[in-house]
Write a structure and sequence with these properties.
This protein is of the alpha/beta class and 351 residues long. It contains 11 helices and 13 strands.
């Protein structure tokens, strides 16, 4: 898509990862709000289809590349009034297969962006993840909680550590370069445009229910999550942009409606009036161990899955600063998401 020239008097906002699931919804909202939007996305997990409705829009510019390879980066950052940094590897399946890419790209690309933002004094909102809370057993996660990350032999924690490194680096720029920074930790965002391709649970379940296939639940199914509609997440992100006192703070963004993965599968089936069944799949079958070049027995290799049993956010701080908390019910989220999905094959979760 060729860059288009926007109105010169409209403020410019940069969205990295703007062709992704959440990023494209944010781009849509910003365009509706009258901003010029500059998207930087290498389309490794993002999709041109996510931006097809904005093709030719006079207020959007798109750079199909990594942040570090964007020839317009310095120019755009100097002109921008705000930067949303959403670019990241997503999905448990992809993280487990490409831990090196997650760590290297996450750190390198964020460093390039933060340095440019600090040089220009442009505020940044960095999206992080509920994964940073790690193996904590608290009833709900608070922004000031200590974090308990799993061992380095577990590839799934690569993503959490990558986003934590981003958070530490962002706050270092805030302290040492006076860069206005906001951290938003997102909890299981779902909705239209999300794909089950990288292990996301809800679109996988919905696709299976639409195709009358068994919904595959990994482990014992008693692990719980809170699913938040992408439009609610975008509203929270936009409100944080408009809140000067949010700079220097960390915010959870997510629903507080908690449900087990097994109950989610049953709710999808009943809500969509599907004839599908629910199938339990052991983690060992869901995530086969990688082959080991040193010839170690399978029993000697660290397991690749170390799942969080609960992941419920405390959102009181978000409400205090912005007056907003996500409020769309899970049943409504299922219906909204199902209407956006054509029947396709699928069926497992990584959420």
């Amino acid at each position: 898509m060729n860059p288009a020239k926007g109105k010169e008097n409209s403020p410019l906002v940069i969205v990295t990862g703007g062709a992704g699931f959440i990023g494209s919804h944010l781009v849509e909202r910003l365009l509706k709000d009258g901003f010029q939007v500059a998207v930087i996305d290498d389309f490794s997990t993002g999709s041109h289809d996510n931006l097809k409705d904005f093709a030719g829009h006079p207020q959007i510019q798109i750079a199909s590349c990594k942040i570090s390879e964007c020839v317009h980066l310095q120019e755009w950052v100097k002109k921008a009034v705000f930067i949303y940094h959403l670019a990241a590897t997503v999905g448990v399946e992809l993280v487990m297969k490409s831990a090196l890419q997650v760590l290297e790209d996450g750190f390198d690309e964020t460093r390039v962006l933060l340095r440019a933002a600090a040089d220009a004094g442009t505020p940044v909102l960095l999206t992080s993840t509920s994964e940073v809370y790690g193996k904590s057993s608290r009833d709900s996660f608070d922004e000031e909680d200590d974090l308990l990350i799993g061992p380095p032999g577990q590839p799934r924690w690569s993503y959490a550590c990558s986003k934590l490194a981003d958070e530490f680096m962002a706050f270092a720029y805030a302290r040492e370069r006076q860069l206005p920074v906001i951290i938003a930790r997102l909890f299981n965002t779902v909705g239209p445009r999300q794909t089950g391709r990288y292990g996301m649970v809800l679109p996988r379940f919905i696709a299976s229910a639409q195709n009358r296939e068994n919904l595959k639940v990994f482990g014992d199914g008693f692990q719980t999550r809170c699913f938040c509609l992408v439009h609610d997440v975008v509203e929270a992100l936009v409100r944080l942009q408009k809140c000067p006192s949010a700079a220097g703070q960390v915010f959870n963004i997510g629903s507080t409606e908690e449900i087990s993965i097994l109950e989610l599968a049953r709710l999808v089936v009943s809500t969509l009036e599907s004839s599908s069944g629910v199938e339990m799949v052991p983690y060992a079958n869901a995530y086969p161990l990688n082959s080991n070049r040193d010839g170690l027995e399978r029993s000697q290799i660290s397991p690749v899955v170390d799942d969080m049993r609960r992941r419920k956010p405390s959102v009181g701080k978000l409400h205090h600063f912005t007056g907003y908390v996500p409020r769309t019910s899970l049943k409504e989220i299922i219906l909204i998401t199902a209407r956006s999905l054509a029947p396709t094959a699928g069926g497992h979760q990584g959420g």
